[in-house]
Amino acid sequence: MHLIETVLLLLLAVVVSGSIARVTRIALPLVQIGLGAVIVLVTGVTVDLEPDIFFLLFLPPLLFLDGWRIPKEDLFRDRAIILELALGLVIFTVIGLGFLMWWMIPEMPLAVAFALAAILSPTDPIAVQAIAARAPIPKRLMHILEGESLLNDATGLTCMRLAVAAATTGAFVLQEAVVNFAWLALAGVASGIAVTLAISTAKGWVSRRWARTWALRSSSAC
Fold first, then answer.
1. 217 to each of 24, 203, 208, 209, how far by Cα in Å?
2. What is the distance between the alpha carbons of residues 23 and 111, in angstroms, rounded to a whole number?
3. Closest Cα to residue 31, out of 22, 21, 23?
4. Distances from the Cα of 114 to the Cα of 28, 97, 120, 162, 182, angstroms
5. What residues have CB less than 8 Å from 80, skipping those under 6 apart?
6. 18-32, 91-105, 202-216 — which is least confidently predicted?
7. For residue range 116-142, what is the model confidence (pLDDT) as tens digits?
8. Packing angle of the helix pair 110-120, 90-104 (nearest 10 deg)
9. 149 burial type by CB count under 10 A (0-12 exposed, 13-18 middle, 19+ buried)
């Protein structure tokens, strides 16, 4: 019953947070964070969620939903700018922010500073949408920001993985890091293309089969 009560409480918090955000005109993520903190302080209820489970169950549907909403023509038209921001800007931010935190906190290992910077560097598409709702942003610029926020998570997670590996092993080889980054990027793109082709093929086969069956039944009924 504890799990069921926790799930119901979280669902109620989601509904209440939406109402509070509409009334107060505060960004929904901020309301949800504040309401979650209040629930923990009042009830003492906490939810332990493994990072691997979160990445497997929650992150892919969120990214899929964002990718589904983005106009595909605009995404392909501005693909060069989006890739430059999602790859180059994130890596530049990780390096710059990592050295800055290491300079400010000398006791912090450099690899740990890079790992923390990799967590903070990618922008959130929800935050981008919240800002766009309050400020007049050109539509093309909004599409670029949405596309960049859709792809930068992969760059940030890869940088964090390399930084964590360097922190745990105590060694960092630039050539090996570049090779691992390229391998993860290419493998991710190949996996996405393979899954997309498989789903599209299955969807097309099911549509043709059901369409043929429906046409035969309609002709028999006539």
1. 55, 21, 14, 12
2. 43
3. 21
4. 29, 8, 10, 9, 18
5. none
6. 202-216
7. 888 888 876 666 666 666 667 777 777
8. 130
9. buried
Q: DSSP H helical segments within the chain, as ranges?
A: 2-24, 28-43, 51-57, 59-69, 72-77, 79-83, 90-104, 110-120, 125-134, 139-169, 174-221
Compute the radius of gyration of the chain from its Cα atoms.
22
Give the chain's mean pLDDT.
78
- For 148-199, the pLDDT digits (tens) are 777 787 788 788 888 888 888 877 676 777 777 778 777 877 887 788 788 8
Q: Which two tokens stand for residue 59?
A: 């992150």
Kindly state the tokens that stand for 38: 């209040």
Tokens 């691997």, located at residue: 52
